[in-house]
Design goal:
Number of helices: 8
CATH class of the largest domain: Alpha Beta
Strand content: 5-15%
Strand order of the largest sheet: 3-2-1-4-5-6-7
Number of strands: 7
Distance between the termini: 25 Å
Low-confidence stretches: none
CATH architecture of the largest domain: 3-Layer(aba) Sandwich
Helix content: 40-55%
CATH superfamily of the largest domain: NAD(P)-binding Rossmann-like Domain
Length: 264
């Protein structure tokens, strides 16, 4: 399957590192013009330079904007007026005593994890429907389905994204625009290695260490290793392609079998 996104423009929010960067890289490698997003110009410029070095001929647009705010979303549109592909990847997470999470913290999680995606969808979806082609995606989490007691506020915000995705898919029905969410499972991102080695034998090599971590601390995973960001990016790139033209309103899992459920 040869995925060619030449002539398409994509915006990937929160894409200077981790899953977001892997998605941006995958889209660029498939020929898309990619808007790389982060809050500061220096951070985004550094990531853009890295992406250009890793992907020959990559067409990268620096979108330095805090899209968790209405002002930042408006700036993103100024810097990248039209997008054929919108990947709402931006998100924050953290553990907390569920009885001690304040109203302000709940609001912050919904502002960043949910409303940022809603705003950008409202801003970019009309252009997609006018052109008769587009892809909107939301990066959700296994926590959207298996709510963690130490991260209820995070899990519920990701559950909300599944509803947002399904709702906008209905709003775009029959227009040539598809809207989907991607449920990411336990992923190998920055800081995770340190976390793993806090819980397993530090003398183990990384491959053995992560498998031991998964066996003991994430036994419900069928993959029994952490997911690499590129593996999530592969799903996103596919959903952005012409090959996924009949897939919309869905919640597609890249969770390594972590969620013990047939659907979604």
């Amino acid at each position: 399957m040869q995925i060619d996104l030449s002539g398409k423009t994509a915006l990937v929010t929160g894409s200077t590192q981790g899953i977001g960067y892997a998605i941006a890289k995958g889209l660029a490698a498939s020929g898309a013009r990619v808007g790389l997003n982060g809050r500061t110009a220096e951070r985004v410029e550094d990531a853009a330079a890295q992406l250009r070095a890793e992907v020959s001929g990559a067409d990268v647009v620096v979108v330095d904007a805090d899209v968790s705010t209405a002002e930042g979303a408006a700036r993103a549109v100024e810097l990248l007026p039209d997008a054929d592909i919108l990947v709402n990847n931006l998100g924050i997470f953290g553990s907390a005593d569920p009885l001690a999470i304040s109203d302000d913290e709940w609001r912050r999680y919904f502002e960043v994890n949910v409303l940022a995606a809603v705003r950008l969808t409202r801003l970019y979806l009309p252009g997609m429907t006018d052109r008769g082609w587009g892809r909107v995606q939301y990066i959700a989490s296994d926590s959207a389905i298996v709510t963690p007691t130490e991260m209820i506020h995070y899990g519920v915000s990701k559950t909300a994204l599944l509803g947002v995705s399904r709702g906008f898919a209905k709003a775009a029905a029959g227009t040539g625009v598809t809207v989907n969410s991607v449920i990411a499972g336990p992923t190998h991102t920055g800081g995770v290695e340190d976390f793993v080695y806090e819980l397993v034998d530090k003398s183990l090599e990384w491959d053995a260490a992560q498998r031991e971590f998964m066996r003991v601390h994430r036994p419900q995973s069928l993959l029994q290793r952490l997911i690499e960001p590129e593996e999530i990016a592969n799903m996103v790139v596919y959903l952005a392609s012409k090959f996924a033209s009949a897939t919309t309103g869905g919640a597609l899992r890249v969770d390594g079998g972590y969620v013990d459920s047939i659907l979604p």
